[in-house]
Amino acid sequence: MANHAHVNIADFGMDTISLAGTLPQKLAAIRGAGFSQVMLMARDLVGHAAGIEDAVQVVKASGLRVTGFQVLRDFEGLSGHLHEYKMAIAKSMLEMCAAVGAQVLLVCSSTSTHATAEPDALARDLRKLAMLALPLGIRVAYEGLSWGRHVNEFTTAWDIVCRADAPNLGIGIDSFHAFATKTPLEDLDLLDPDKIFLVQLADFMWNEIKSVEERIDTARHFRVFPGEGVHSEALAELVMRLDRLGYRGDYSFEVFNDDYQQMPPPVVAERARRSAVWLGEDVLHRSVPLPGRMRLRRGDNTVD
Amino acid sequence: MQDRTDRESLADATNPLGLDGIEFIEFSTAKPQAFGQVLEMMGFRPVARHRSREVLLYRQGDMNIIINAHAGGLPRSVQPSDTPVIAAIALRVRDAASAYRYALDRGAWAVATHVEVMELNIPAIHGVGASRIYFVDRCRDFSIYDVDFTLIPTVDAKPPALTGLHWFGVVQYIGNDRMEDWTEFYGELFGFKALPPEERHGILPKGRVLKSPCASFYLQLIEPEPGILDVDGEESLQRVGLGTPDVLASVTALRERGVGFIESQGVHSETRGALTQSYLGGAMFELVHDER
Q: What is the model's pLDDT at position B145?
């Protein structure tokens, strides 16, 4: 770890989904590569052999800050018993999210054929979800999945977030989906940086994605870390645009990759680290923090 | 799904639940006798006991306080500790069942109730921290206490309020950057509105004050002091505020009963308000000038 102290990768974290192994092995690999934060998924907790309560202790003992918790799917736009069913799922996710100390819940735009396309109905459901998350101190990040049925870009996701107009509801941006739909990156300038609650970064190895099926397949099996694929320039532009816009939140590497699932977690985490160093040093030119630097709350004397 | 409140043409858009004040405030404590003595100093009188649980009802004027020493053991509920903690606020509404549905339809968490035989099922939602918000609609013809409580023999069931004391509101401590969240919560579910920053009450003018849609009580939201380390702040209902037409007369009357008041350079008794000292490790009461 000694050589890890000389770079600043504090803005970046890993998703557990990139790693094989048990929850403790994943956390150890992420920590070992010098990261200070981790994006968890519900399965990390429910699949932990010693149970959810032990998983929560393992996460807390790791010393890693939890970037966020994923993922609530196909939530918005349903009615009747389908809506009630999804509300129950949402409550369960929120309770785990709170237990593990995550302050952001990631929600992907619905792919359901049963969901309405009516934007105000989608907004109403997300507002209700935000209200459910509110007493728990959780913020909801709504992400436009590139194969979402009615919302599949960050621009349309932003429209729904604005309609819903809840203080703890914002947008989640995933570079993969933006590149897959070829949404112009200039459109990022339309966003309010305080309402971007999470940014997930990943690249992939080919330039064109021809069909929705190929989009899903690529997203779930063939993502790579930033700098490893063919969209490095666009990734650098995306990160620099968000930084110029005033975004100061977290970046997490959302890399689904079947090959990485067959490699030792520390080896994969080291690849993630190279990505973070590239983005932190070469792209964002983050300075090395002074020893003993404190993280102060935002306010009159903002430091962060 | 049809919104049941849409059927009510009487529904007032600015007061969707027909909110009409605070029915009771519930404190949880493992030391009900000790806290009862504090309440008696504050002018409250014990009037009834719960039929099946270690729960007492104190009253003065139109203020009811319930002391709950019953360890329910439910998740996300206040467990009795030596220091009394505000465990619940009960709101008077036009129709408790429809108020409850209105809140759930907008994303409130339902509280699972454990009702014993012949007890009232009072609908409740989760509030800040481990606290609850009850909906009560039986305050006119017969009261909820008639069902669940037994009057203590020989006591006056309607003791008058000392020097015109009445509910003024509740102070809630919130975490960093949570002001907009909680303003939205109380606005969306109950119709509270933020007062303009220049309209202040009492002697502790911090944070933001929300006014109930029935204009009969207030919630004051207070964030941690700026500049402190960004740690996870516990959120809770911190204290109740009592309104009085004459703060100094109330202070004098309460002092005679043994209540101590904080008299420091920053906080001291004056015509705008006063703050009692802290009892049993944290329970305190604020007096606020309020003509009513």
A: 84
